[in-house]
Amino acid sequence: MSNRVLVLGATGTLGTPVVRSFADRGHTVRVLARSPEKAHQIFGRTVEVVEGDSTDRDQLRRALVGCDAVHISLPTESELAAMRHVIELASTVGLQRISYVSGTSVRAENRWFEVVDVKLKAEALLRSSGIPYTVFCPTWVMEVLPNFIKGDRAVVIVGKNPPGFHFFAAADFGRMVANSFEDDRALGRRLFIHGPEGLTLPQALRAYHEACHPQLRLTYLKLFQARLVAKITRQKSMESVTRLIAYFDKTEEGGNPSEADSLLGAPTTTLADWIEIQKRQS
Known about the structure:
Strand content: 15-25%
Largest sheet: 7 strands, parallel
CATH class of the domain at 4-139 and 167-194 and 253-268: Alpha Beta
Helix content: 40-55%
Mean pLDDT: 93
Low-confidence stretches: none
Oligomer: single chain
Strand order of the largest sheet: 3-2-1-4-5-6-10
């Protein structure tokens, strides 16, 4: 069991529940954040906060000193540089373990998609480093659904052939990552994280809209329409979503979650369960 864990990307959708689960298990958690104020707003004083950028080698080195392990959950533009720095610095700080968030569809035939290419490069660096590691390959997290609420409407972006996804709750993911740090059988593994039921994105959004935002207009946009709106409004978040949906028009979720479920305890939160939690918190 690691005593002090550095979390990179701690304030992100998948980073936050990992931090909380580590803290709940008695780990000392340190986060590297460009905005310490934001980190303290989310976590209070339950974690150590170091101001800095994960792509800055010197700032990352200062954050790593005294840490036994690091969990990397970063966006595409910073994760590869951060992985390189962590591996280069590992021996100087005595790092014993690295966990990394990849994706369920990250595989060689999808390398044409930039996100996949970056993640495959990061995974390759990690495997060749000789440092004990675990790679997590999650599918879509339920916490992305509120991002489709745009002002006075809920926007459903429909691809040509919407695939099914086994949506999972972020809290379940945090629990599974924390469990992995207490079970050495997770080392050297590439573990797929799928939720308990399969739904298309439009199905999940409709259920979320009807239960949590029934007063809002439900708007369906075809992919080309969403791209046009993103371009006109300069909404980077919508542009990113359209790229992702276009990508999944050409591939599938992929991955077998049975090993992760067996080792770490399967996600149990259904979309209906998660929606009830959102209603209580609103």
